[in-house]
Structure formats: C-alpha cells, structure tokens
Design a protein that fits this description.
Layout: E1 2-7, H1 13-32, E2 36-44, E3 51-59, H2 63-70, E4 72-77, E5 90-99, E6 109-114, E7 130-135, E8 141-144, H3 150-173, H4 180-183, E9 194-197, E10 202-203
C-alpha cells in the first residue's frame, strides 16, 4: 500500500481548485490501471468544490510507480475563476508519496476494533471493521474506517502511525524534504513535473 498526498500548500482557492481537478484525473488514471484508491483524509478548500489537501491510499500492482509518477510539483495555467481581474495565471500544487518502512515494528501498537459509523442503508458496515490504533510508546493514535475489511483498515492504520512517527523524527532532525506534513509548505515553484491548462484542466 502506498499513501499519496495532494496539497495546495498555502496557496489560494485557485490552487485548491487545481487539487480538486488533479484528484479527479488521478482517480481516473488509477482506475484505468486497475489500482484501488481510497480517501483517508481530506481538508476542503475555501470555495465550494475545492480541496486544500487530500491523502489517498493506493493499492495494487504498480501502485508505487504510479504514485511516483505524480510525486512532485505541478502547474495549472488558467485565468482565475474567482477573481476575473486578477493578473496571475500560474497556480501550483504538489504531491508526495510515502509508504510504511519495511522494517517498521508494529508490535508496540494497540488495536481496538469497532463498527464503522455512517449513514443508514444497505451499505452500512455491520461488522467491527473500523480500527483505532494507538502507538503505546508515544500515544500517537489514528482511527481508520475507509476499508470494508478489518485487515485492510489495520494495515492502513499501521502505515499512518509509521508516517506520523517519521514526522516526529523528521522534525527533530530537520529532515523536512522527506516529510509529507512539511510538504504543505514546500511546494517548489518552477520546473513543474506536470503542467495543465485551461478551465478543463487539460494536460500540457
């Protein structure tokens, strides 16, 4: 399983709209490759339909290569749909991928299982598949219910805890370039990996 984050960093609503457009394109590309994707976390942007940040889990053959194809800074060239007289037309956003380190020891994690909450209907998960995981040494806790199986939610919870432990280590060591949480503030302007243009978000 790979985790991939799309982020507008500290960019304005236009950058958040670019993230929303990119998410739709990314999900379509993943589907074409037979990859399974789930939204783990999402922070909405200031305008309706915009996304400031979204964290995805990607699973399947070639998931790592697919995520790496998106990792980096991206540029959307388009007149602002929110500020008609605004001169700026270049809107940057970024993507960062990471995975659970192979050597990560999950023995120090306590797991609790519960029924996934959500609206009623035939798709409500009636089994105890939701997972709350606590890293006992640090108190870091996550709750995951995006998957329909307990095993898959447990696997994703371990990956999230591993990432948050890495966050603490990176902050202590100032290794900000490899940390997804720092990526919010570090999208590089210039030399974009992908360029999109126009209201329809066409690849350039």
């Amino acid at each position: 399983m790979i985790l991939l984050q799309l982020s507008a960093a500290q960019g304005p609503a236009e950058c958040c709209l670019a993230v929303a457009h990119a998410l739709g394109l990314l999900l379509a590309e993943a589907g074409e490759r037979g990859l399974k994707t789930d939204r783990v976390e999402q922070e909405d942007g200031p305008e309706k339909g915009t996304i400031s940040s979204v964290l995805l889990s990607i699973d399947g053959a070639g998931a790592a290569q697919f995520a790496e194809g998106w990792a980096g800074s991206h540029l959307w060239i388009c007149a602002s749909p929110y500020r008609p007289n605004h001169k700026r037309k270049n809107w940057y956003f970024g993507a960062q991928s990471f995975e659970t380190p192979p050597s990560f020891d999950a023995s120090g994690i306590r797991f609790e299982f519960m029924k996934a909450s959500g609206p009623g209907g035939q798709h409500v998960n009636t089994t105890a598949s939701a997972v709350r995981a606590v890293h006992q040494a640090t108190g870091i806790a996550v709750k995951v219910s995006t998957e329909r199986s307990q095993h898959a939610n447990r696997k994703l919870a371990v990956a999230l805890i591993a990432a948050r432990l890495a966050e603490k280590e990176a902050e202590a060591g100032q290794s900000v370039r490899t940390a997804r949480w720092r990526h919010h503030l570090e999208i590089e302007r210039g030399n974009p990996k992908r360029t999109f243009s126009g209201p329809k978000f066409r690849a350039g």
